[in-house]
Design goal:
357 residues, alpha/beta, seven-stranded parallel sheet, 12 helices, 14% strand, binds nicotinamide-adenine-dinucleotide
């Protein structure tokens, strides 16, 4: 897996106390990396970071990306070979309640990491995680491509589009003749064991099923590109490894934005997602569509042709497998289970002939 790209390498990972950050930290540790996490303390109870006992196995720094000075000090002290920037306020509905916090965290947090990387004097591959919601959503049936216009209706989506614009501007302005290479990764609607965020459909389903009450669904007809968390994370690792690979130096276009979305068959409605979950954990759901609800995108799909052409990356698990593994992740969460799911995922990727596996 990823040959030896991450073995004994130093990684600065922001957002390691969150859902995707904890999965990425676990995979990086498995690949032999020294992981330096930078994030706020876990905000949910339970939290995957605690469930996996990650604080004992990586360098765990609790700090704020809104502090330029603290980010700068941390990156300078770490001298990373790789940077993955995941720390963010990632919830659309919360962004309506706390727009200023969302922009400060997502836009200025990104700018602070970019700025700190300017003073790094060694080769480093940096991947900034944004979202599929950064595109100007036209509710069309085609997948968005990396060159499509950025936008975002709500504060969260537009904060990520603004981060993308800042990343591109820093790349052009400061990283042309610089040892640090900068890319961004856009994925969306990630599911998997250990996400306990409020106001996300899968954690909401699991909490209802645990309590034995009907699942309330506020947006049953919205279509999303559902994907297991291992899909985008394999994409982030592929992208970072390719940015540094001696075999593929400076392939034009690598230091840029990449979509990591699922295959077309995984573009399903929220109602279909809930019904698939109920196959593995029986229960009931209720349609609680609220005409007064804040705006959320209805239709959103990504084209992954660029990731496939330049990185040899493709999605691996289909929709039913992603749901089955997700429900298992909630029912049996442990470090062993996560390692097992990574191995199963890599074996399936190998069968498909993906180069990273
Ligand atoms: N989960 C998804 O479906 C999804 C989809 C698209 C993009 N993303 C992006 O992936 C990344 C990770 O998302 P997640 O689902 O793991 O979210 P999460 O809420 O589980 O984790 C967020 C992480 O960011 C950290 N953080 C938040 N504010 C911070 C601050 N001011 N200073 C330092 N750290 C701070 C938190 O401590 C936590 O570690 C985010 O950038 C998010 O926008 C997530």
């Amino acid at each position: 897996m990823f040959t030896s790209a991450f073995q004994n390498k130093t990684v600065w990972l922001s957002g390691h106390t969150g859902f995707k950050g904890a999965w990425l930290a676990e995979w990086l540790l498995k690949l032999g990396a020294q992981v330096h996490g930078y994030a706020l303390a876990p905000s949910t109870q339970p939290a995957l970071f605690d469930q996996l006992g990650l604080s004992n196995r990586l360098h765990h720094q609790v700090n704020d990306v809104r502090s330029a000075e603290a980010v700068h000090r941390s990156i300078q002290a770490t001298q990373p070979d790789f940077v993955f920037h995941l720390a963010a306020q990632p919830l659309v509905r919360l962004s309506y309640e706390q727009p200023a916090v969302t922009y400060a965290t997502n836009v200025m947090g990104t700018v602070h990491v970019l700025d700190a990387l300017r003073s790094l004097k060694k080769p480093c591959a940096a991947v900034f995680i944004t979202t599929d919601k950064c595109y100007e959503n036209r509710e069309w049936i085609y997948g968005y491509r990396e060159e499509d216009p950025l936008g975002g209706y709500d504060p969260y989506s537009s904060s990520k589009a603004a981060s993308e614009i800042a990343i591109a501007a820093y790349r052009r302005s400061f990283f042309k003749n610089h040892p640090v290479r900068i890319a961004s990764a856009r994925a969306g609607n990630v599911i998997g064991g250990g996400d306990w965020a409020v106001d996300r459909i899968v954690p909401d389903c699991i909490r209802a099923l645990q309590r034995g009450v009907p699942i309330t669904v506020r947006n049953p007809h919205a279509t999303r590109p559902w994907q297991h968390v291992l899909e985008p994370i394999s994409g982030y690792l592929c992208l970072a490894a390719s940015l540094t690979s001696d075999l593929r130096p400076l392939i034009s276009g690598l230091a840029s934005a990449f979509n990591f979305g699922p295959t077309h068959e995984s573009n399903r409605t929220v109602a279909e997602l809930v019904q698939e979950i109920l196959k593995h954990w029986p229960g009931r759901w209720e349609d609680k569509s609220d005409p007064q609800a804040v705006h959320e995108a209805g239709l959103l799909q990504l084209s992954t042709d660029k990731a496939n052409a330049l990185l040899g990356w493709s999605p691996v698990w289909n929709f039913p497998t992603a749901i089955e593994q997700t429900v298992r992740g909630y029912r049996e969460m442990s470090r062993e289970l996560i390692l097992n799911q990574i191995l199963q995922y890599a074996a399936a990727a190998k069968q498909l002939g993906l180069p990273w596996a």
